[in-house]
Design goal:
Order of helices and strands: HEEEHEHEHHHHHEHEHHE
Helix content: 40-55%
Oligomer: single chain
Strand order of the largest sheet: 1-3-2-4-5-6-7-8
Radius of gyration: 17 Å
Structural class: alpha/beta
Number of helices: 11
Number of strands: 8
Strand content: 15-25%
Largest sheet: 8 strands, mixed
């Protein structure tokens, strides 16, 4: 066990099961965002939480601008945690950009992983006409990055409610805003650039693990077209469209998030042949 990695990434392990479920947080967040979901799985799985270097309570002294200039550096954090704990057959649960980070990690060392659960993932945030809709024009992303650099607090104040998209629960937007603001602005700006300018379409097409794509409704970050694209290009994928609105269903709609993940894992245990299916929760 590599104690240095466990300290660097603020790794927490609990649960009474043997198979590991590794939960990876999204941009501007930390492992605490999973607190409404993990209790539902701790009886049956070994829960692993961590913070990427530069996020949460990770060791900021370990941050390396060169390493984290691409998502590969964050994927290495995932692999380092797996190696430090000697994990195998990992059920990887990644939110937002961590969906692609998990793809990169599983493609690099496929023997470590059992399946991927991707919550609001996107392989490419920028539209690539005429064949790909990511949700943003390049000018949109450049404007976002410029605002982060000039007025980080104002950026966080504006974007958090739009991402959460649950106006009747302002405490959730406030928590997300606070999480954004607790991150070093320079590191956050670099992570945003690494995230929003990346193009990982070739990587998601190379996935060979069974995967669940959880598509949120009215998601400003990852619109419906993105989930449909991923399901189309990822062999053995299942697309589940949630009734949950916004980009953070594990915070705003944890009950639905838990149910969808649990149903998928149960189906995976009982089926010998994995095929992709589409189901819209709003029509259920």
């Amino acid at each position: 066990m590599d104690e240095a990695v466990l300290a660097r990434n603020n790794v927490k392990v609990f649960g009474r099961g043997s198979q590991p479920m590794l939960f990876a947080h999204g941009f501007g967040c930390d492992q605490n965002m999973w607190r409404f979901v993990t209790p539902a799985f701790q009886s049956d799985y070994r829960i692993v939480l961590f913070d990427y270097v530069g996020s949460g309570n990770s060791d900021l002294g370990a941050y390396d601008a060169t390493r984290y200039s691409s998502l590969d550096g964050y994927a290495q954090d995932v692999l380092d945690v797996c190696h430090a704990l000697e994990l195998r057959d990992v059920i990887y649960v990644g939110h937002s950009v961590s969906g692609v980070i998990g793809v990169l990690a599983s493609n690099r060392e496929p023997n470590l992983f059992d399946r991927l659960i991707l919550v609001g993932p996107s392989p490419r945030y920028i539209n690539d006409a005429p064949d790909y809709v990511g949700g943003f024009e390049r000018s949109d992303i450049e404007g976002l990055l410029e605002t982060m650099e000039k007025n980080y607090i104002g950026w966080a104040n504006f974007l958090a409610p739009a991402i959460m998209k649950n106006p009747d629960r302002p405490e959730l937007s406030a928590e997300l805003e606070e999480s954004f603001c607790s991150t070093d602005p320079v590191i956050a700006r670099r992570f945003a650039e690494t995230t929003f300018l990346a193009d990982n379409r070739a990587d998601v097409a190379a996935v060979r693990h069974p995967s669940l794509i959880m598509q949120c409704s009215e998601d400003i970050i990852a619109p419906n077209a993105v989930g449909e694209y991923l399901h189309r290009v990822m062999p053995g994928s299942t697309l589940k469209v949630l009734a949950a609105t916004g980009h953070c269903p594990h915070m705003s709609h944890p009950e639905e998030t838990i149910r969808v993940i649990r149903d998928y894992l149960r189906a995976g245990r009982s089926e010998s042949t994995l095929t992709g299916t589409v189901h819209d929760a709003r029509s259920a």
